[in-house]
Design brief:
CATH architecture of one domain: Orthogonal Bundle
Distance between the termini: 5 Å
Mean pLDDT: 81
Structural class: alpha+beta
Number of helices: 4
Low-confidence stretches: none
Shape: globular
Number of strands: 3
Order of helices and strands: EHHHHEE
Strand content: 5-15%
């Protein structure tokens, strides 16, 4: 079940990472627990949140589910937005 908030973000790795980190911290989830829920290493979470590594759609879907927050990423006028919804 979603927390009712839909997050919209521009598709730059730094911006996505910043928003993911803000959401994770706002719900009190540790980086270790978050990494386990997403199925990636803690080091990878750190790189993603710092914008040092890009996000794959599959990973973003897992992130949206782990954070229980639908995420919409806007990639620009020539590309469509990707809506990554959490499970209902």
């Amino acid at each position: 079940m979603s927390n009712g908030k839909v997050v919209r973000v521009v598709g730059k790795p730094q911006e996505i990472g910043r928003v993911v980190k803000e959401i994770r911290e706002s719900i009190g989830m540790s980086m270790i627990r978050f990494a386990r829920k997403v199925g990636i290493s803690q080091a990878q979470v750190s790189r993603l949140e710092d914008g040092q590594q890009g996000f794959r759609t599959h990973t973003m879907q897992k992130i949206a589910i782990a954070l229980d927050t639908p995420i919409v990423i806007y990639f620009g006028p020539k590309r469509k937005a990707a809506a990554l919804a959490s499970r209902e």
